[in-house]
Design brief:
With 682 residues, this protein is mostly beta strands. The protein has one domain: TonB-dependent receptor, beta-barrel domain (Maltoporin, Chain A), CATH 2.40.170. 6% of the residues lie in helices and 59% in strands. The protein has a 22-stranded antiparallel barrel. A 5-stranded mixed beta sheet has the order 3-11-12-7-8. The chain is globular and about 70 Å long. It starts with a helix and ends with a strand.
Length: 682
């Protein structure tokens, strides 16, 4: 215990903040940190402090300094509005009370392809290749179409600006945690190249050996809280500047992941998981007179999900009258997703007061899944057109009005308008917005059927529904921001009303399901309504040039109407797996001595009780992280920074038995170290 206390006293977190406070800048006043350029809120470039739509930003410096074990840990640790919970096949992201189904995740403005159990696979992302992350809350369907009801997370990748630019981040921790992320940027004449490689591995861990099986609590479970897994990603981005007006881009990526599952007496796990993705994209940008420009791009992504069998399994499927049996060594396709996305966009500046942003989009989604879809495959397409006008009415007043029309194969036409207002009053920014959100049913929600037992729990059959309607929402928010010399504070209140919300609803078991000993049956259905009211608060305080105190608090009260809930039938009850209160806090200090710089600090996150419609609620918890950052070599071209830290300082572990809802998957107190090497050649 004494040794641990000594280590804890010596460790603290490297300097960072979720509000774009970058280390190494000579910050004479707080306004410097708001000079970051953002694009996601309006689709046009603005300084963060002047953005008509409220935007949170996580910069590359923050990413490098936080040294998270995973993207989930990074996002939840730096933004109180983002939370994760343990799900069918990993952690599921939530934004202000709505699940990942209602959050649009994009890479360089293009929607991310590849979901696992209904969630985006964040293992695809390479932290060393990320320039910044922009988070816009609230309905953004007028610009981005389906899924942008809760908000948008846009991952902006690095664009090489130097002749040679190299970044390498190696992080090692307990339980076999290893992550290596590297990015190499090279410029040869008019061609710029950025190559990225990301590899990670964990041995996984088990927080309990208790498991619910056939409605009984049994010990001796071999299931793991987090499974052993390995993955790697290789990416290449090229930019060719033909002349002062025209530039062309091309990119490609390849990704593989392996997940091992522990077979045991209470769970017959005959297979492991394997994922494979590759993508290609080409595009171009043409500069018009002034600041106006045209862009066009086409991308293709293919995401595969497979079972790698290690034990024999006799299935309930038949071929030519014989029951299908799988044997050890076989790799069997479970689903194969293909996405084709075509976009054309024009941004036109008319004088100093008007910016017109207009575009067209075509999206095609195709899903193959043997035995889970009638005919083994299905597809949908979407056609959309949008236009948005930014009008600077007065020097201190900006009004943004836009709308998007979307035509979907199954749900028909939808119109999504939006209006937002920014008014500046000296050191204060007043923002307000009103928008319609839109979400079309996914291919899986429409056509997919499967049976599984989540975490060793109840054997449940899940059914798609081709009669689903599109989900719509009405979102309104008002916010006030203060930016002074030492203090920045932002408060935003919002309400989000959803109609035709799609949820899994329990239905009666069919005779065939009873014969197959299935315990529950669920079907995707449109619920009547849902409503979310909430408030976000963030602050940053710089009492001295070396000390920073920051954090945020997010309150959300999401409720929906659920059938089959007895006395609560169609009453507003909390949306499944949501927590009302979430907060982050950090306090940091840094100082430099010639070529050595030391960063000390602490980060904390609190999450209240997570409420569930079925089974148990997940208990409230808080975790704290401390770390030291040592910049040993800081030269004109080279930088070397070593980090050493402790995650979950107070050793919180949720030992909820498998088959019930848990608060977090953390294994408790863990130690880690990392090395960051950067090289730049002007």
């Amino acid at each position: 215990m004494k040794a641990e206390l000594v280590v804890l006293l010596l460790c603290a977190v490297s300097y960072t903040s979720a509000q774009s406070i970058g280390e190494g800048k000579k910050q004479k006043d707080l306004s410097v940190m708001l000079d970051e350029v953002v694009i996601t809120g309006t689709g046009t470039e603005h300084y963060l402090k002047n953005a008509p739509v409220q935007t949170e930003i996580i910069t590359r410096k923050v990413l490098e300094q936080y040294q998270a074990r995973s993207m989930e840990e990074l996002l939840s640790g730096l933004s109180p509005s983002l939370t994760f919970h343990d799900g069918n096949m990993g952690s599921h992201i939530q934004l202000n009370g709505l699940n990942n189904d209602y959050i649009l995740i994009m890479i360089d403005g293009k929607r991310m392809n590849g979901d696992v159990g209904g969630q985006n696979d964040l293992n695809l992302l390479n932290p060393a290749n990320i320039e910044r992350i922009e988070i816009v809350k609230g309905a953004a369907s007028s610009l981005y179409g389906s899924d942008a009801i809760a908000g948008v997370i846009n991952i902006i990748t690095k664009k090489n600006r130097d002749k040679t630019d190299f970044t390498s981040i190696l992080r090692v921790g307990e339980y076999g945690d290893v992550r290596e992320s590297a990015s190499l940027g090279v410029t040869v004449g008019t061609v710029k190249s950025v190559t990225g490689v990301n590899c990670s591995h964990t041995d996984g861990w088990r927080n309990t050996d208790l498991q619910w099986n056939q409605q009984q609590l049994k010990s001796g479970s071999t299931l793991k809280t987090v499974n052993r897994s390995s993955d790697y990603t290789v990416t290449e981005d090229l930019t060719w500047t033909l002349n002062g007006k025209l530039s062309l881009t091309a990119s490609g990526s390849y990704y593989e992941r392996w997940v091992a599952r522990s077979h045991g007496q209470w769970s017959y796990l005959s297979n492991d998981f394997y994922y494979r993705n590759y993508g290609l994209a080409i595009g171009g940008k043409y500069e018009l007179n002034g600041r106006s420009y045209l862009t066009a791009d086409v991308s293709f992504d293919r995401y595969g999900y497979f079972y790698d069998y290690k034990l024999q399994e006799v299935t309930d499927y038949f071929k030519d009258g014989d029951r299908i049996t799988y044997y050890p060594g076989q790799r069997i396709k479970q689903s194969l997703q293909r996405q084709i996305l075509g976009q054309a966009k024009g941004v036109f500046y008319f004088g100093e007061r008007h910016i017109l942003n207009a575009g067209l989009e075509y999206l095609y989604n195709h899903l193959e899944s043997p035995h889970h879809i009638d005919g083994d495959k299905a597809s949908v397409y979407t056609l959309a057109a949008y236009a948005q006008e930014e009008w600077t009415v007065l020097e201190d007043l900006v009004v943004t009005v836009g709308a998007r029309g979307t035509l979907h194969k199954e749900t028909g036409f939808n119109l999504s308008p939006k209006v937002s207002v920014l008014y500046k009053m000296n050191d204060f920014n007043l923002r307000a917005s009103y928008a319609f959100g839109y979400k079309s049913p996914t291919v899986k929600e429409l056509y997919y059927n499967y049976t599984t037992a989540l975490g060793g729990g109840t054997v449940t059959a899940y059914h798609g529904n081709t009669d689903l309607k599109a989900q719509t929402s009405q979102y309104a928010s008002v916010g006030l921001e203060y930016v002074g010399n030492e203090l920045q504070v932002s408060v935003t209140a919002y309400v989000n009303q959803l109609r035709n919300m799609i949820e899994l609803v329990e239905i009666n078991l069919s005779a065939e399901e009873k014969l197959d000993e299935i315990e529950k049956s669920k079907k995707y259905m449109n619920l009547t309504r849902a409503r979310i009211g909430g408030m976000d608060f963030t602050f940053n305080y710089l009492p001295t040039k070396d000390i920073t105190i920051g954090g945020g608090y997010s309150f959300a009260d999401p409720k929906a109407q659920y059938p089959n809930q007895g006395l609560r039938y169609m009453k507003y009850i909390p949306i499944d797996a949501t927590s009302q209160h979430n907060a982050t806090l950090n306090a940091t200090w840094r100082h430099s001595w010639k070529r050595y710089r030391l960063g000390l600090g602490i980060y904390g996150r609190y999450q209240s009780v997570r409420r569930y419609v079925e089974d148990n609620n997940a208990e409230a918890f808080q975790t704290w992280r401390i770390n030291t950052a040592h910049t040993l070599l800081e030269m004109k071209k080279w930088t070397l920074t070593l980090n050493a830290g402790v995650d979950n300082v107070f050793n919180y572990v949720d030992r909820t038995p498998f088959g019930r809802n848990r608060a977090t998957t953390t294994p408790g107190r863990t130690f880690y170290a990392s090395a960051l090497i950067k090289f730049k050649s002007k």
